[in-house]
Amino acid sequence: MKKFLRLLYLAPMALLLAACDNGFEEMNVNPNASTAVVPGFLFTRAQLSAVSNNYTGAAYLTIGGSMQHFATYKEVPAAGDKYFNYTYSTGSWGMYGGTDMTTQGSIIDIEQVISAVNTAPADVNKLSVARIWKAYMYHRLTDLYGDIPYSQAGKALTDKNYTPVYDQQSAIYADMLKELEQAIAAFDPAQATFGTSDLIYGGDITKWKKFGYSLMLRLGMRLTQVDAALAKTWVQKAIAGGVITSDSDIATIAYVDGSVTASRNFIASGLMGTDYVTPGGDNVEGGKFSKTLIDHLKTTKDPRLNVISIVWVPSADGKTFTADTTTALQKGMQNAAFNSLPADFNSYSEPNPNTILKYSAPLLVFTSAEVHLLLAEAAVRGWYSAGTAQAEYNSAVTSGMKQWALFGSAGTISDAKINAYLTANPYKTSGSVDEQIEQISTQKWVTLFLEDEYEIFSNWRRTGYPKLTPTNYPGNLTGGKIPTRFQIPDSEGIYNETNFIEARTRQGGTNNLSSVVWWDK
């Protein structure tokens, strides 16, 4: 009876709504919103959102701590320092979009761009660049999480597929390398580009080819522990194609120190907002540079120490502070050594406000320094005969130090200092293959600092270098083991349960910070 009365009550309401529907749909359309995909706009957004996604939680607090570039005395933000709080690692999943379906991630952006430019021959260059950038985004995601949605991902709008399958990482790598090869080959100098909508190269397809081959080189080298023969094939194919070896070809994104937060360098903004707000006293998340990093830079007499690191020195009355880069003053904080504010907290080193913390600092997306280190490893493995490991290593060090000049005068390192460093830390040509790879990888740990913590994390898992001493803070989540994989959000077990469980089972039955990805042997 109650059900009948409810239906009886709703019936006239339904008629009323039907009568009022005339013209309602038109009234409900936002006249200022675009109803069609604008590829240039979405590509710009895909570039910006992909590189900045979850920087604070992932690159800073999780990877930056576990790779011992940073340390904290607090427990909550100690995802990498004390191996606590796995939730910081789940945020990178946001590249797919918000789980509440209210936000669109960079994966959907790039899929929409590809769909929009996939048919017109005149858009071939836009399509190629989008495919290369798609590979860049997915390689970061799969390297963090392992098996992930790939072949069916980003299809919710076009295919109404809200539960994509999880592809195996081996298959994802095979497809990314194929995509890079095909995209590079399809470039046509006679056709249009994204132009100024491309924040990295402004539509320069010659440079995009080098970027694509450099990414191919990175991905090929990632396969060394699972399929050396296949790794060699792709590494040599990339080198033959032409990679980034000149500083003029470095992939960067420019930022400005404007009032709009989105226009600022997200690393500087993230570090400032998360920790390094004002000199003296406590920091928001208790962060400082790690003792491991500072000790290494001081021991090797690395001039980058004075570019990246400062200690706040108080005035006589203690009311003002001066950022001091003097080598003798620099001191890193031991990882997982404290659970409350250390009495000497102010004496520990933190990022230089005149370089790292500048809102107008550029983002270095892919550098010649990294490529030279990859070429050095290729030479050590006998896969690159056009150069020597020593020459490539020296070029990497030189480029890696000179690139700090892009951050302003405080980042300039003289040729004399670079030469002095190379003299004091010569490449070990007589070392074994493993010893040489250790030196190359340790240099990568320094050179890619700030530029690409994600790649440092991946290279450490692949090679085991640099040698880092794990922490074993009471109650940590890994049993005193440095985290090796990011944790997929619990929401996937709700919204995409079947595929999530299948992938979890396939990867050893676990979804935690101690899991490993396919290429990590």
UniProtKB/TrEMBL annotation:
Matching SUPFAM superfamilies: TPR-like (SSF48452)
The keyword Signal is annotated on this UniProt entry: yes
Domain of life per record: Bacteria
InterPro entries hit by this protein: SusD-like_2 (IPR041662), TPR-like_helical_dom_sf (IPR011990)
Secretion signal span: 1-18
Keywords carried by this UniProt record: Lipoprotein, Signal
PROSITE patterns xref list: PROKAR_LIPOPROTEIN (PS51257)
Classification via Pfam families: SusD-like_2
Protein's name in the database: SusD/RagB family nutrient-binding outer membrane lipoprotein
Phylogenetic placement of the source organism: Bacteria, Pseudomonadati, Bacteroidota, Cytophagia, Cytophagales
